[in-house]
Amino acid sequence: MNLELLTPSKKLFSGEAKLVKVPGSDGSFEILNNHAAIISALSDGELKVETESGETLHYQTSGGVVEVKNNQVVVLVESIVK
């Protein structure tokens, strides 16, 4: 699936991912290939990305939203620290 990880000031990641774990407002959840369409608010917490190349990235987020549709994941966060 294709992932776009964005803040208001820059694009932090753009590429293929095997797994994205986000801190949803009602608890964290994982997004895998062929996930059902969803839009969710995000809380402060850890965002985890497992890339197709096997790299695991961890970010600390402070709120935002995630949209998943047709294997396209867009994560918009207020701020992030890698």
Overview of this protein structure:
The protein is an all-beta fold. It has a single domain, classed as F0F1 ATP synthase delta/epsilon subunit, N-terminal (ATP Synthase, domain 1). It is built from no helices and nine strands. The protein has strands at 2-6, 11-24, 27-32, 38-42, 45-51, 56-61, 64-69, 72-77, 80-81. Strands 1, 2, 3, 4, 5, 6, 7, 8 and 9 form a nine-stranded mixed β-sheet that branches. A hairpin with a 4-residue loop joins strand 1 (2-6) and strand 2 (11-24).
Fraction of residues in H or I helices: under 10%
- CATH-derived topology: ATP Synthase, domain 1
Give the assembly state of these chains: single chain
Proportion of β residues? over 45%
Q: In angstroms, what is the radius of gyration?
A: 11 Å
CATH structural class: Mainly Beta
What class, by secondary structure content?
A: mainly beta
Number of strands: 9
Gap between N and C termini = 21 Å
Keywords:
82 residues, mainly beta, ATP Synthase, domain 1, nine-stranded mixed sheet
